[in-house]
Design goal:
Keywords: Carbohydrate metabolism, Glycosidase, Hydrolase, Polysaccharide degradation, Signal, Xylan degradation
Structural class: alpha/beta
CATH topology: TIM Barrel
Strand content: 5-15%
EC number: 3.2.1.8
Number of strands: 9
Protein name: Beta-xylanase
Order of helices and strands: HEHEHHEHEHHEHEEHEHEHH
Strand order of the largest sheet: 1-2-3-4-5-6-8-9
CATH superfamily: Glycosidases
Number of helices: 12
Shape: globular
Family: Belongs to the glycosyl hydrolase 10 (cellulase F) family.
GO molecular function: endo-1,4-beta-xylanase activity
Bound molecules: (3S,4R)-3-hydroxy-2-oxopiperidin-4-yl beta-D-xylopyranoside
Length: 351
């Protein structure tokens, strides 16, 4: 039997995996039970999954994951109360069914804003009241910082932003605190948190919100990273910045792509991926987990964005960017048949 990752890191942090409901049984379910002590829904708890139409809730997939976590005494991260993707359109339609963003009349814009923030509050209230006893950490907002051509504050100019300014972020955290209670752990989650100027924009926003009394307990670092990017130093600095504010850091969506950006998708199957690349990946995992164990960085959780290489969103990205629409990535420590890779041994600290 292969030694359990979760047990190995018992004294440091829980080890989680993102899952679809169909993965909490059968072979992936068994791997989860053995190697992980935390789960998060890859898609099943996003707004479009839970409330596809206003007031029409679909709990089935989410409930399956919650029940699995309960039955196996695992932690549960909630992802995500708010995002600009995978949010149903009805959120942003006014009372007449027109897009709120198109409204030019000032008074109506104000009314729309109120309506949108009310819908957000209702969504959060309903979800939080259902799951609050099961959830250990909440991604309250996801990806609110822009890294394309950011405005001065670096705030993403999503529909949320266009209609409410930064108020949607404040409303989301206050609502989460109100309904989940004082003990709930509330996170602001984002990718490329290591990279300037995004990192500083995130930092400045968090400082501003905290000064204004907005309840934030920690920063979720998605950590969709590559073999040589970002540098370990950049990662360390980012964790340090937030730890120095007294916040928790959680690694929320870890995967280490074998490609650069954009992904070439040059390898079409697992068999085509050269062994040397998997060795480089192992070294990368080793340095990362060494960093994560540095107590001064206050890293309280590490979740992979999947279990084995047979199911990863990075395949979609490789296929999207490759010349022929095909391509295979291999970001995890377990291969497509859940066998250990060099990265597993690296993470476990022996080679
Ligand atoms: C991804 C899922 O993995 C895909 O299955 C889905 O099609 C799109 O979303 N950042 C996030 C996650 O916060 O929610 C995303 O998950 C990956 C990037």
């Amino acid at each position: 039997d292969v030694k359990s990752m979760a047990e190995h890191f018992e004294d440091y942090f829980p080890i989680g995996a993102a899952v679809e409901p169909f993965q909490v049984e059968g072979e992936p379910g068994a791997v989860l039970e053995h190697h992980y002590n935390s789960v998060v829904a890859e898609n099943a708890m996003k707004p479009v999954s839970l409330q596809p139409e206003e007031g029409e809730w679909d709990w089935e997939g989410a409930d399956q994951i919650v029940e699995f976590a309960r039955a196996n005494d695992m932690e549960l991260r909630f992802h995500t109360l708010l995002w600009h993707n995978q949010v149903p359109d009805w959120f942003f339609l006014d009372e007449d069914g027109n897009p709120m963003v198109d409204e030019e009349d000032e008074e109506k814009r104000e009314a729309n804003k109120e309506l949108l923030l009310e819908r957000l509050d209702t969504h959060i209230k309903t979800v939080v009241e259902r799951y609050k006893d099961d959830v250990d950490a909440w991604d309250v907002v996801n990806e609110v910082i822009d890294d394309g051509e950011p405005n001065e504050r670096g705030l993403r100019e999503s529909v949320w932003y266009q209609i409410t300014g930064d108020e949607y972020i404040r409303t989301a955290f206050h609502a989460a605190r109100e309904y989940a209670g004082e003990d709930a752990l509330l996170f602001i989650n984002d990718y490329n948190t290591e990279i300037e100027p995004k990192r500083t924009h995130l930092y400045n926003l968090v400082v501003e919100l905290i000064e204004d009394g907005v309840p934030i307990d920690g920063v979720g670092h998605q950590s969709h990273i590559q073999l040589g990017w970002p540098t370990l130093e950049e990662s360390r600095e980012s964790f340090e910045m937030f730890a120095d504010l007294g916040l928790e850091n959680q690694v929320t969506e870890l995967d280490v792509s074998i490609y650069g950006w954009p992904p070439s998708g040059e390898f079409k199957s697992e068999e085509e991926i050269p062994a040397e690349i998997l060795e480089v990946q192992a070294d990368r995992y080793e340095e990362l987990f060494e960093l994560y164990r540095d107590e001064s960085l206050n890293i309280t959780h590490v979740t992979f964005w999947g279990i084995g290489d047979n199911h990863t969103w990075l395949d979609d990205r490789a296929q999207e960017h490759s010349d022929d629409g095909e391509g295979k990535d291999a970001p995890f420590v377990f291969d497509t048949t859940y066998h250990v890779k060099p990265a597993y041994y690296a993470v476990m600290g022996f080679e």
